[in-house]
Amino acid sequence: MSHARDRTILVVDDEPDVRMFLQACAEDAGFNVCCAADGLDALEALERLGSIPPDLVTLDMVMPRCNGLAFLRRLRANPSWESIPVILITAHLRDELGEEALRQLLAMPLHHRPAMVLEKPINPPELVRQCAHLLGVHIDEEDIHLAPSQQSLASQVRTADREILKRINSRLRRP
Fold first, then answer.
1. Is 84 within 8 Å of 54 (Cβ atoms)?
2. Which of 31, 47, 57, 91 has the fewest Cβ atoms within 10 angstroms?
3. DSSP structure class, residue 26
């Protein structure tokens, strides 16, 4: 099983606050992250990354210039990118803005559709769990809410010698 630090996620969302939030969720779990403001920006990012595409894409559905479905079609049309798993993230799954997009999504061949759809507001632990699952990455449940430095410390404690931990614990409990 690989580690989050070995995997890159491309976050695509036109809302800067949402983009930063998704980036922070993924980075806090240890993933590498690059971001794009819309589908065209994301296609340019994929071109820049060249022979090392991201391992996963989180994709907003409703965006200017190139919406999520247009980007997804172009992603799937490129043999170098067609197998990249996509998590579609949207606030418009059940409203008029997303109605036509959802119809188009369901008309796509099954292997071209996103691996999953998450509705906004996003639950950070759920997003991290789904990314880890799709990428075959083990994320310790206890670490999902921890910052990277805390994750490192938690990992060291889990692998430390039990006797040393007992001595540290007894010293910390002394008045």
1. yes
2. 47
3. H
Q: Find all residues with CB under 8 Å of 138, minimum gap 6, and list them.
A: 1, 3, 132
Q: Which residue has the tokens 């614990």?
A: 169
All residues at 6 or more sequence positions from 74 whose CB lies less than 8 Å from its CB, including other chains: 39, 43, 66
Domain count, the chain: 2
From CA 71, how far away is CA 61, in angstroms rounded?
A: 9
Percent of the chain predicted with pLDDT > 70: 79
Q: What's the pLDDT tens digit per position in 80-109?
A: 999 999 999 988 767 776 677 777 777 877
- The two structure tokens encoding residue 33: 């992250």
The residue range of the domain holding 18 is 4-140
**What is the C-alpha end-to-end distance of the chain, expressed in Å?**
43
